[in-house]
Amino acid sequence: MQEGTYPAIVRKTDLSTTQNGHLRIGVKLLVNGEEEMWGNVYFSEKAMHIARKSLKAMGFDPDTRSIVEMEDNPELLAGNECEVTVKPDTYKADGSTKIAFINPKKIRPTPEKLAEMDAALRAIKSEDEAKEAEAKDMERQMGDIMNPKPGDPDYKPTEGGA
């Protein structure tokens, strides 16, 4: 798998403890519909915020559910969609890659939302053009006031002029 960000589907989880005594949840994911890869969610003090974000991204709400559920049912999150960032595995010299981050699935805009944004962009262009035209008109008027021409009621010839 090339380095990048891809859609993924959770297949199963596997809970274990690291050598440091921290909980680790291995997550098997189908990445980009083509390759199964394992990612890890670590529960150290430093990684707890990332662990929470990753669990929520996979459809697990740590506020209402218990990790024990994943121990009892490794396929609890199977079928849930998320997004993963794949990076080179720096611990291996074979050029392999690993899942570096598990993130929420991107929500694509609806055609209606895109049409709404197109209209807003066009409207703002019209407003900007109107403001530009108004500014140019004001500039022209100021120029006329500051530099009257012969025939204008405020025209006064300069010394040595006509």
Protein architecture, described:
The protein is of the alpha+beta class and 162 residues long. Strands 3-2-1-4-5 form a five-stranded antiparallel β-sheet. Helices cover 31% and strands 28% of the residues. The model has no long low-confidence stretch (mean pLDDT 88). The chain has two domains: 4-103, OB fold (Dihydrolipoamide Acetyltransferase, E2P) (Beta Barrel), CATH 2.40.50; 108-149.
Comma- or semicolon-separated keywords:
single chain, 2 domains, five-stranded antiparallel β-sheet, alpha+beta, OB fold (Dihydrolipoamide Acetyltransferase, E2P)
Q: Please state the average pLDDT score.
A: 88
Gyration radius, in Å: 32 Å
DSSP strand content: 25-35%
How many helices? The count is 3
Strand order of the largest sheet: 3-2-1-4-5
Number of strands: 5
List the helices and strands and how they pair.
Layout: E1 4-17, E2 23-31, E3 35-42, H1 48-57, H2 68-72, E4 81-88, E5 97-103, H3 111-146
Concise description?
It is built from 3 helices and 5 strands. By secondary structure, the chain is an alpha+beta fold. The mean pLDDT is 88.
